[in-house]
Structures are given as structure tokens and as C-alpha cells.
Amino acid sequence: MNEPCLYILCGLPFAGKTTLARALERQLGIALVELDAINTARGVGLHGEAISPEEWDRTYAEAYRQLDAFLAAGRSVLFDATNFTKAQRDSLRALAVKQGARALVIYLDVSEAEARQRWLQNRATGARYDVRDEDFAQVATLFEPPTQEEQVVRYHPSQPANEWIQRTFLEGNDAVVALSVRYCALTSLPESLGQLTHLQHLDVTGNQLTALPESLGNLLHLKKLYVDENQLMALPESLGNLLHLEEMHADRNQLTALPATLCQLTNLETLRVYGNQLASLPASIGQLTRLKDISAGRNQLISLPESLWQLIHLQSLNVAENQLSSLSESIGNLTGLHTLDLGHNELTALPESLGKLSNLTFFLYISNNRLTALPESLFENLSNLAYLNVTDNHLTALPENIGNLTNLKELRVYNNELTVLPESLGNLTNLKELHVMNNKLSSLPESIGHLKNLKELRISDNRLTALPRSLANLTRLTHLDLRNNHLTALPESLGNLRSLMFLDVRANRLVSLPASIGDLTHLEKLDVRWNKLSSLPEWLQRLEQHGCTVFI
I need a labelling partner for 475 at 20 to 30 A (CA). Which of 185, 220, 364, 449 fits? Predict the structure, then answer.
């Protein structure tokens, strides 16, 4: 069971699939994807109404997305659905093959007569959601029982599920390979845990553990360890014996230090210790050369070890919510990073070498620091960056070469001291959200009209006295927040913003409103309070009749 496995439940409605699925999830420590849960989350079929084929397509698409994500992460997963045709099961097997995983069909061998009887009993008790008559009939008519060529194991609800799982999946494979005891109010684990020497996956998330047994070090085959949300103050030194460990998750505990032996775990790829009380990371962390993901946010770190910058395979680094006042120029060595979170620290300057991180494609967070300027070099090579957050600093200007970020989708620079935005902002033609609230802007660049994919523009709490004519080009804009500025008039061309749904101009110095606002048929909310309007235009009533909420 080294490779992940896609377990495919198969059976008629009311054959007992969900009951078995929950038992398999618990005993094997695997993930679970349920069609019923997805429908509930999507708000369809809640009251017994028919679910359209289009909605079923969307539900299955979401299920397949979740299955693919679990398998891609190396996690076994169970799909709880009827899977009543071979074609459906073939497509699931193809999904498993794509991710290098095994596939196993678990067939609940229940006759149509027995399933029908269980179905009618449920109608009397209302124990779970009902199935419509035509839906049950369709599945029963088209049902294709799996053959042995499909690699199938059979189960009947007359067998105790826990015993069947133990006999089928655990006893025949040397020993227990996965153990999940999440949120069980455990205060300790027995030393005998170390006897489960074939264990590969251990999850004790959400208990009340203050320590782990030293015998943890006997679990030499362990690959994934989850001890999140406990009360651990330390990890055992024997942790260093787990040479096959690939993932360690210890978020939200009370750890004040990590054992030095951690640096012996040369197969470790994920280290998550968010929300502890760590004052430092191990000096020799650079020995963990396979690390791809480090999450050490919300601790008490005042510096980072120099060896950290040797981790050239690192893809995601989160050291937010610490007490870092500076960063080494060696951070530029981490050229594999796609996500970097430096927010909520005490940084007064950024290293020039940050601009070398050309693979930063997802997020760069440097919000809530003490920055007064950004280095020009920062934006030299970040053309693939999607999200940039530099809010809550003391910036008075943005570098002109911010226009190099041509794939940026979201830019947040609010709560700074900006007096002007660079003209190069107009190069960000993929931008969908621009947040520049609470600065000192008196105008916007004319180039803002080039942002034709922009959907949200939030410029409240500035000093704007007028809007550029080019604003009328933003025809995809849905949210425009101009509140608390110094605007005395709005352009008639505002009526070109045909996609606008929310317009907030309260607390300005407006004496009239352009009539073209009355033509914005998609408008859902208009707020014009705290202005100096001489009269209320008649078209406000027309907007309200179209369902728009107007605050005056």
C-alpha cells in the first residue's frame, strides 16, 4: 500500500454505502469524497426536488476535482457514489492511473429487492435523504455489477463493517498501515503505539495531547504524521528515526522548539508548525534538502537560520506573523518558490534579491510590516505573479516597474501613504481586483482605463477630487467603491459601466448625480448618503423598481 489508492464504492441506493464509507475512512485513515455532501454544499436537492442533469454534471465535476487533488497529494481516497455503470468506473480508474494510483472497486452486493426494502423503511423513518422513485428505478435498470476483471472486493451489510475492514485491508497486509483518531479527546498515546511498525499514516489531530511517546521513533515506515491542534510542548527526540517521513503537520500546538534530530529527516517534503511558540528554527534545517513546503507562521521567530536559504527545492514559505526585522539577501537562492508570505512582521526593508524569485506565480504577501519603500529590483522578474499584497505599511510610492507584473490578478496596497499611482499600472491588463483604500491619492492615472478585466476597484478614504475619463472603459467592473473622498461630481460616462452591481459614493461632496446611473440595469446597491445633493433624481425610483437597494 505504498502508492495511493482510489477506492470506488459501487452499489444500489440504500445498499449501505455511506455507512461502510464512514467506517473505511475512520479505520484506514483515508480521505472521503461524497456526492451527497457535495450536493448539500452546493445547495441542490435539499428538499427532495429533482436535480437536473446540468447540476449533476457540476456535482460530478467537483467530486472528480477533489479525488484528483487527494491522489495528486499522494493520499488514498474513497468515492462514495452508486457508480452503477462500468463506464463510470472506467473513468475513475483512468483518473487513478493519471496520478500513478491504484484503483479498487468495493461492491456492496445487495439485491434490488433488499435495497428496495431498505429504501421503503427509510421513507417511514426519515433517517436520511430520500431517493425519488424514478431515480431509484433508473439506477436499478441500468446497474452493471462489477466483474472480477475490474479488481473488486465484495461486501454485504450483514457483516460487521469493522471486522470486514480489518480482515480485508489490514490483516492481509502485514499490519496496520494507517491510524486516524481525530478529535477523540485523547490526553495521551500508549507506548505500545510503537508496536505498529508498519504504520505509514498517523493522524491524531484535534486531541488534548501534551506529549508523544518516545516509541514514536519505532514507526520506521511512517510517511505522514498529523498532530495538529493538540497541546504539545515538545516533540520526542526519537522523531529523528523516522527516515521515511515525508510530511509533518504540527500546527496549533505549544511547541517552543523543534528537536535537533528533525534535521535527520532527509525525505521530509512538508513541515508545518504554524501557530506555536517557536523562537527559532533548527540551525541545520538546510540539511532537509527535499523540503518543498514550510509553514512557520504565527510563532515568535526573530530571525531565520542561514541554512534555510540552501533549500533550493522550496516552493512555499510562510513565516508571517512573527517578529522578523530583516531578511538575508540569500533569500534570492530560493528560486523554486511560488508562494511567499512575509506579512505581519517588523520588516523595514526588503532584500534586493527578492527580485530574483522569477517562479513566484501565486502569492507574495508583505503586508503589515514597517516598509517605507519597495526596491525597484522587486518587480524586475516577477511577471508571472498572480497576487500581491503590500497593505498596512508606510509606502509613499510604488516603483514604476510594477507594470512588469503583467499576469497580476489582484493588487492590494491599502492602508499606506501613497500620493500617486504610477502610469505603468495600466500595463496590468489581467488585473481583476485593485484595492487602494486609505491612502492619500488626489487623482488616478489615466492609464487605469486599460485595465479592461478589472471587476473590483476600491478607492475609498482617499482625497480624490475627480475621476479620469478613461474609467468609462472598465466595462467589466462590478464593484466601485469611492466613498469618503472629495469628489464634487461624477462623470456622465459612468453609465458605460454596464456590469456594475455595487456603487458606493457616500461621504463625498456631490451636489448632483449623472442620469446615466439610472441605466445601470445590473446595479444591486447604490449608496449616496452623506453628500450635498440638491434634489433626488426620479431615476432612483426606477432603480429600486428593478430590485436595486438605494441608500440616500
Answer: 364
Residue 149, class by beta-carbon neighbours within 10 Å (0-12 exposed, 13-18 middle, 19+ buried)? Answer: exposed
Grid coordinates given for 485: 473622498
CA distance 57 to 105: 22
| Residue 384 DSSP class | T
Three-state SS across 328-382? Answer: CHHHHHCCCCCEEECCCCCCCCCCHHHHHCCCCCCEEECCCCCCCCCCHHHHCCC
Angle at 70 between CA 67 and CA 72, to 5 degrees: 105
- Domains of the chain and any CATH numbers: 5-173 (3.40.50.300), 176-311 (3.80.10.10), 324-440 (3.80.10.10), 462-477+489-552 (3.80.10.10)
Short-list 253, 243, 316, 256, CA closest to 282: 256
The rounded distance, in Å, linking the Cα atoms of 477 and 486 is 22
- Is the per-residue pLDDT at 378 higher than 50? yes
* 130: alpha, beta or left? (left if phi > 0; alpha if psi -120 to 50): beta
| Residue whose C-alpha is closest to residue 526's, from 54, 125, 79, 510 | 510
**What distance in Å separates the CA atoms of residue 3 and residue 279, rounded to the nearest whole number?**
37
The three-point CA angle 178-183-189 to 5° equals: 60
Q: Identify whether the C-beta of residue 95 lies closer than 8 Å to the C-beta of residue 20.
A: no
DSSP single-letter state for residue 283: T
**Per-residue pLDDT reduced to its tens digit, 195-224:** 887 888 999 999 999 999 999 988 888 999
Q: How many CB atoms lie within 10 A of CB 54?
A: 8
C-alpha cell of residue 404:
512588469
* Helix, strand and coil in the chain, % to nearest 5: 30, 15, 55
Give the CA distances from residue 282 to residues 275, 288, 304, in Å, rounded to whole numbers and listed in that order.
17, 11, 9
- Residue 396 neighbours by CB distance under 10 Å: 14
Residue pair 502/522 in contact by the 8 Å Cβ criterion: no
Beta bridge partners of 549: 525
Angle (CA) 391-392-394 rounded to 5° is 105
**Does residue 45 sit in helix, strand or coil?**
coil
Q: How far is CA 10 from the centre of its chain?
A: 30
Distance of CA 388 to the CA centre of its chain: 17
448-498 residue pLDDT tens: 999 999 999 999 999 999 999 999 999 999 999 999 999 999 999 999 999
Question: Alpha helices, DSSP H only, in 99-158?
Answer: 112-125, 133-142
Q: Which residues contact 43 (CB under 8 A, 6 or more apart)?
A: none
Q: Mark residue 14 as left, alpha or beta (left: phi above 0; alpha: psi -120 to 50; beta: remaining).
A: left
Instruction: Classify each residue of 151-187 as buried b or exposed e, where b means 16 or more C-beta atoms within 10 Å of its C-beta.
Output: ebebbebeeebeebbeebbbeeeeebbbbbeeeeeee
Q: Which of 297, 345, 350 is nearest to 323 (CA)?
A: 345
- Taking the whole predicted model, whether its pTM rises above 0.85 is answered as no
Cβ 391 vs Cβ 417: under 8 Å: no
